[in-house]
Amino acid sequence: MSRELVADRDYRVPAGCGIVGVMNQKGERFSGEAITKSIATMRERTNGLGGGFAAYGIYPDFKEFWCFHLLYDTQQAKLDTEEWLKVYYRIEKEEPIPTADVEAIEPRHHLWRYFLELRNHTEKEELKLTEEDLVINTVMKVNRDIEGAFVVSSGKNMGIFKGVGYPKDIARFYQLDRYEGYIWTAHGRFPTNTVGWWGGAHPFGILDWSVVHNGEISSYGINKRYLQNFGYHCTLFTDTEVMAYLFDLLVRKHRLSFEVVALILAAPFWEEIERLPDKERQFYSTLRSVYGSALVNGPFAVVVANSRTLVGLNDRIKLRPLVAAVKDDFVYIASEESAIREICPSPDRVWAPKAGEPVVGRLSV
Fold first, then answer.
1. Is residue 358 within 8 Å of 265, Cβ to Cβ?
2. SS in 3 state form for the chain?
3. Per-residue pLDDT tens digits for 279-314
4. Nearest to 303 by CA among 202, 190, 216, 232
5. Does residue 221 sit within a domain?
6. Is 17 marked active-site?
7. Which residues pair with 53 in a beta bridge?
8. Cα dihedral 172→178→179→183 (10° resolution)
9. Count of structural domains within the chain
10. Alpha-carbon torsion angle 33, 37, 42, 44, nearest 10
11. Residue 2 belongs to some domain of the structure
12. CA of 346: how far to CAs of 28, 324, 325, 326, 338, in Å?
């Protein structure tokens, strides 16, 4: 059989997947066309079994409302979910997510979005929960207990768009050229350990967090059990899901900086810690002891975003590629420099972040 007749998707390519993140630090919005062009340059890193995008600032008319993007397998799943939502939320608006006919994309789900306002509940006061905590409880309830319903994103003024297909086709399917945002992330998937399905495509999200990932998380089991202690349940059959929840737990709930979070997720080796001066050695040892179950093992490169930040991070040995660049008010992070130069031919600075050292872009307004 000739090589041309053998589909790439039949092979395991451990270094596959392409990731991109672009941020305007002044909050100026730009079209989804740019991120689409960027991720499309890395088509050879994907095999058509997953593509997706996260966009921030795309719903300015509803920016005070929680926006849920959902995948439904059946109409019954939709009815069951809406019945549950109405207990805790007032639905300001609900509608199908607009899509276009794209020959390469075969929709397998009903795609719906809701703009929601939380009702007042005694549960919030009695358990001293924040709005964010209640939203997370909702996401976990839907994903875990309502058959055929999956929450794709649940933040404010942002949304995740993903499915099975090449990223360029997914962008056309969701008509992302009609959206404008100040942060965009993108992923082209090459599944290695799990199936390619709509809910398992990247990005993964919770609240306004989104994560795109290249690599493998061999500590998934430990990380998953650790997160369950804090009310996070992994139900989407892809290891990257733990990354989204770890960032929410460590940054939002434990109020740690991204620099400290990097030391937890991509922790230095014990032999390195032992060589540090006393004060640093004590600090690093404490982090390893307290957050040992949050350590992420395996090769990884991630681009993580929330409504005010874009972050890139590698594993401690840097077994997956990651490149960063800046140009005026823009920050770029990608698997390959070519993906950056496709949309920014002359950056002010380009560099390869060191293993375990985060690249952090922050909103300045």
1. no
2. CCHHHCCHHHCCCCCCCEEEEEEECCCCCEECHHHHHHHHCCHHHCCCCCEEEEEECCCHHHCCCEEEEEEECCHHHHHHHHHHHHHHEEEEEEEECCCCCCCCCCCCCEEEEEEEEECCCHHHHHCCCCHHHHHHHHHHHHHHHCCCEEEEECCECEEEEEECCCHHHHHHHHCHHHCEECEEEEEECCCCCCCCCHHHCCCEEECCEEEEEEECCCCHHHHHHHHHCCCCCCCCCCCCHHHHHHHHHHHHHCCCCHHHHHHHHCCCCHHHHHCCCHHHHHHHHHHHHHCHHHCCCCCEEEEEEECCEEEEEECCCCCCCCEEEEECCEEEEECCHHHHHCCCCCCCEEECCCCCCCEEEECCC
3. 999 999 999 999 999 999 999 999 999 999 999 999
4. 202
5. yes
6. yes
7. 161, 186
8. 60
9. 1
10. 90
11. no
12. 20, 13, 10, 10, 11
User: Do the domain assignments include residue 302?
Assistant: yes
Backbone angle region of 57, left / alpha / beta, with phi > 0 → left and psi within -120 to 50 → alpha: left
**183 token code pair:** 């942060």
Question: What pLDDT does 125 receive?
Answer: 59
Tell me whether residue 7 is in a domain: no
The domain of 23 spans 15-362
Q: Token pair for residue 83?
A: 């019945």
**Tens of pLDDT along 61-73?**
999 999 999 999 9
Count of C-beta atoms within a 10 Å radius of residue 206: 24
- Identified catalytic residue from 17, 67, 234, 344: 17
CB 223 within 8 A of CB 293: yes
Among 335, 319, 307, 295, smallest CA distance to 189 is for: 335
CA 100, distance to chain mean position in Å, is: 24
- What does R_g of the chain's alpha carbons equal in angstroms? 20
**Chain centre distance of CA 93:** 25
Q: What's the token pair of residue 341? A: 């130069």
pLDDT of residue 46: 87
Dump pLDDT digits (tens) for 160-196: 999 999 999 999 999 999 999 999 999 998 776 667 7
Read off the pLDDT of residues 255-268 as tens digits, 9 standing for 90 and up: 999 999 999 999 99
